[in-house]
């Protein structure tokens, strides 16, 4: 087949190279050096878009903007002057849907079919021939285009029969791609200012609910000592955010978080220049936060802890706090050892006694009977009361014992509690978890630990009996700080997913198609992989109250204020969660936040 390709930039060039040797390829570009490189590879060269059109059955374009597509098609010596009826035009530009539809309608009047087929996955995926191609357009045109597109990549996903829908899908995906990137970097910058290593934060996020493409690829590459670079211009991602916001305004979907992301990218382009690459946003976030995310030695800190099993089986373990999470963790521990438990609700204690646990009559007796005491209660203030209040653990603690705090707590209060326990000869290890009760039951939960290394090594085998996904984060309080960092990133993932999905639904995309594209592309994140498959059915993806998430996000925001980190996206996410808690009720599950975004965009996810 005779195929023409116009637009041999970083992405277009990588896509066009996949066609060499598979079809007869003719190219044209205003960049003569790019054209010359393709000629050396065996491609034919046209001297104008019109000449290329006369030689080809299929013409593919990959240009910066829809306005560039219009110029190439209808401008002087443009495609329209050479296109014959029956020719197929494939637009791989990340363009604007309504503009593309208008161009397609004008070409249809000449008997020329046009579909849109933008891509997602980056230059490396294009070079590897594995990039995701989103396609929309009439059935017959799609069938004719499929063999050509499949020669570029086997990952071709249909996004509808309306021209422009694939470009809308690309914008929805990029809302998540850019949003998760900047939100993650902002939160990690805050963590660096708090003294946490990049290696431990990356490990925590990737093992927890905050994981996304930025943490998995960009940050992990840095930790592994590998280059994390791309050839994608920051100005092009800014263009995509501008188009996403324009699409939102056009169809009536408010996009509060994407507005902040767009603003950060605009600052980047204004200060770093039009030629800045997207990876340079790392330096932008560092500058805004007044810190360095990447420092020498980050790779060395990535080593996993080694368990010290000697004597671990002989340690007597007690557990205080048998709520939803604490109860799930206790049951996991009961698979490998006898547990002594305490909760102010005696009926809950009796339930665990029926399952084989020993019920403590009070906190001092539990402290006297056990070598290691684990606490899982709502707040650090309650932890202090459990330990030092009247009738608290301190009345039974003795030197050499270890307290493990699995509360999602305040790092500052945790350090103070640790200092006071130290005076009693008792070590404190903070070890909050991420992954929910289901993860605890399955043994896949992530555990973030801070505290004296000797104490951590001693209790590590106990923690490993809960889950192998353990990250040692350094000093006392760093486990709680890391959990707050993970929760902040995870919350950004969740609300950005709702915002992107609301945009897609308001425009007219199906949630099934968004799930299919986003979760195999650059917009993927830990929230999207759970939310999008069940969003239309109002399915449950979490078991965590809005009020508790607000508490965690307030603690993260206080950390940011104390160290001087802007954290713009996560702070906006906190505000939205606060609104959600007021409107939907603090005891509502996290999934209820979907209804807040439905109300803001005047949609129903169930209708999509």
Task: Describe the protein.
This protein is α/β, with parallel strands linked by helices and 608 residues long. Among the domains are: 2-163, NAD(P)-binding Rossmann-like Domain (Rossmann fold, 3-Layer(aba) Sandwich); 312-482, Rossmann fold. It is 51% helix and 11% strand. It has 26 helices and 18 strands. Strands 3-2-1-4-5-6 form a 6-stranded parallel β-sheet, with helices on both faces. A 6-stranded parallel β-sheet has the order 12-11-10-13-14-15, sandwiched between helices. Strand 2 (24-28), helix 2 and strand 3 form a beta-alpha-beta unit. Helix 8 packs across helix 13 (281-289), helix 9 crosses helix 21 (478-507) and helix 21 packs across helix 25 (568-584).
What is the strand and helix layout of this fold?
Layout: E1 2-6, H1 10-17, E2 24-28, H2 32-40, E3 44-45, H3 49-55, E4 58-61, H4 66-74, E5 88-91, H5 97-108, E6 113-116, E7 119-120, H6 122-128, E8 132-135, H7 139-152, E9 156-158, H8 165-193, H9 198-207, H10 213-223, H11 234-251, H12 256-272, H13 281-289, E10 317-320, H14 324-333, E11 339-342, H15 346-354, E12 358-359, H16 363-369, E13 372-375, H17 380-388, E14 402-405, H18 411-422, E15 427-430, E16 433-434, H19 436-442, E17 446-449, H20 453-464, E18 469-472, H21 478-507, H22 511-518, H23 528-531, H24 546-563, H25 568-584, H26 593-601
Parallel strand pairs: 1-2, 1-4, 2-3, 4-5, 5-6, 8-9, 10-11, 10-13, 11-12, 13-14, 14-15, 17-18
Antiparallel strand pairs: 7-8, 16-17
Helix pairs in contact: 1-6, 8-11, 8-12, 8-13, 8-21, 9-10, 9-21, 11-12, 12-25, 14-19, 21-24, 21-25, 21-26, 24-25
